[in-house]
Amino acid sequence: MKFLLKPLAVSIALVSMPSFAGGTVLSELGGLNASTAGAGSAAISEGAESAYSNPAAMSLVEKSTLTGSLQVFNLNVAYEDQGSTGNFAGTDSQLDADNAGSTLPLGSVYWVNPMSDKWAFGLAMASQGGSSVDYGDDWRGASLISSVDLVTLQVNASVSYKIDDQWAVGLGFVSEYASLLQTQSFTPNINSELEAASVEFGFNLGLHYTIDDSNMIGMSMRTRLEHTLEGDFNLDRSGNVESYDASLSMIAPSIIKVSGYHALNQEFALLWSADWQDWSKNQSSVLIFDDSGLQANVERNWEDTYSVALGMHYQVNPQWRFEFGVSYETSPLSDSAENISNQYPDLPVDDIYRVGTGFTYQSSEDFSINVFVEYIDMGAPEIYYEGLAGDLVGQYDLNSAVAGVTMNWQF
């Protein structure tokens, strides 16, 4: 069996792990700041979202607060072939992939409870990334990937300590569950499925400085999570299924974010954020078949990414507030020919532009509702994958949108 398993192992390994590529780390959803495209997320706490976005900002919460959010996320992944060769050349029925994306429901829950005038405790259940891509079994690159579903969930317990009227610090413990289901179609009679999961642990830290009632600055950091997803690789040859233990590496990067909030007058406030994501640690992915000891490395050569966001709040009246924001995030791969060869069809990466808007309605002193929508342009990355029996050459058009509602209860 090893004579067949070895080339399949190498082929599977050459498929990009559906990791938290630049387009799939949606920290603005976890921080509930999509209406400002992520601007201000580490500086303010209007509900209990700071239990996730910046534990130090929990010091701003005066009452026990419960926050819930429901969202719908739509991902569009279109591929246009530009001269693939060999096994990727395909036939007339194996041309482009009009839309390999999907529409997914998302949700998150947060709770912050002030324990004294100094201490506060928080709990968050949210996700900072994932993907669901389905090209089908008859597109040109089906031998690399047919479909992939990656789901992540973080449980974040945190505490904050208010040093004085201006300074506060926070510390959180993070546990993240990641689940992967990935399929490939080598021939009409040979298919594979990789199903794996893991739990990884990390920390998040926070610092918050209140200059005055109108100006605040916050900084947050999330540590890197290095998953080793373990599960089964199932090889289906004309209905005969053979199963092997396998593991696959995946990295969620360290993130450092600095944010500010500045109320210019009673109606208008300016928000901003800047962050760094440690994607340069993601230089390769490793697939290991535990039964045989075979393994293969996928070179990625990713770089750190940086982003900036600018947003605003406009208080229309005591109950209604309008919100808007834009952001820009660099790609973990530059545009050089060498880096194009490191693109993979799980979710190719490029520069990212976000535009978000929404409104908040304060129906009473203890209840508010926020409705938001965000459009994310993930670029048009090129791909030039050099395979053993041909090259996959094409270009993507990537974009997504998210809409949701968030509710805050104080009691």
TrEMBL record:
Main location group: membrane
**Does this entry carry the keyword 4Fe-4S?**
no
Which intervals of the chain form a coiled coil? none
Q: How does this chain sit within the bilayer? A: Multi-pass membrane protein
Residues annotated as signal peptide: 1-21
Q: Mind telling me which InterPro entries this protein's record contains?
A: OMPP1/FadL/TodX
Q: Where in the cell is the protein located?
A: Cell outer membrane
**Pfam families given in the database record:** Toluene_X
Q: Which UniProt keywords apply?
A: Cell outer membrane, Membrane, Signal, Transmembrane, Transmembrane beta strand
Name the family the entry cites.
Answer: Belongs to the OmpP1/FadL family.
Which PANTHER family does the protein's record reference? OUTER MEMBRANE PROTEIN NMB0088-RELATED
Q: What is this protein called?
A: Outer membrane protein transport protein
Lineage of the organism: Bacteria, Pseudomonadati, Pseudomonadota, Gammaproteobacteria, Alteromonadales
